Amino acid sequence: MGTLKNRIYVVGAIGTDCYLAWDDESGDAMLIDPGAYEPAVERTIEENGLVLKYIVLTHGHYDHKDGIQEFKEEYPDAIFAASAGEKGLLDPLSPELELAEGDTLELGDLSFQVIETPGHTPGGLSFYVDAWDKELIGEDYSGTLFSGDTLFHASIGRTDLNGGDFNTLISSIREKLFKLPDDTIVLPGHLDATTIGYEKRYNPFI
Fold first, then answer.
1. Fewest CB atoms within 10 A around its CB: which of 11, 68, 143, 154?
2. CATH assignment at residue 119
């Protein structure tokens, strides 16, 4: 079992949570939702001797994707991965790896499960790994979910934008994310972390 490390960077004009996640044993890393170029990401990679294997998107809105080209220029070997369902939002970007339900992304001994969570956008994705950063987050959890703009602390993603659908989003949360253990820490696309158990009990939209 690998050791998960996370760093959170709030980027762009509307404060998107961009995540760098890596396996501390192998140094394999992935960058999630680079909504703007952030030099601190490169510093973290260099200081920890990491190899950026993937640049992945939970969905294709500008505030989650606008740093991709600059990071690809700096790390040309990193594979850009996203859902095929987001092609309408990604133009002119083109994923080198199209992700779907049941796929996994491997960082050393860590395996990140790809979960299709449409509703905020047609091809929205979440990523789950049964590990957590014990240094960054002192409490014990069963795993970490990167939920993008599907599930927030006491809230959910917007569905009034093009391609959004409220009923689909609620179904994604209830039928997919709420099947995860209650003590899963949720790292969303904006604002503060939460847990699956908290959202089951207190989220007013569910």
1. 154
2. 3.60.15.10
- Report pLDDT digits (tens) over 99-157: 999 999 999 999 999 999 999 999 999 999 999 998 877 778 999 999 999 999 999 99
Domain range for 177:
4-202
Tens-place pLDDT, residues 9-26: 999 999 999 999 999 999
Q: Which residues lie closer than 8 Å to 133 by C-beta, 6 or more apart?
A: 4, 5, 6, 144
Residue 123 to residues 13, 59, 63, 116, 202, Cα–Cα distance (Å): 23, 7, 16, 7, 26
Residues 148-177 have pLDDT tens digits of: 999 999 999 999 998 999 999 999 999 999
Domain count of the chain? 1
Q: Which of 98, 143, 107 is nearest to 125 (CA)?
A: 98
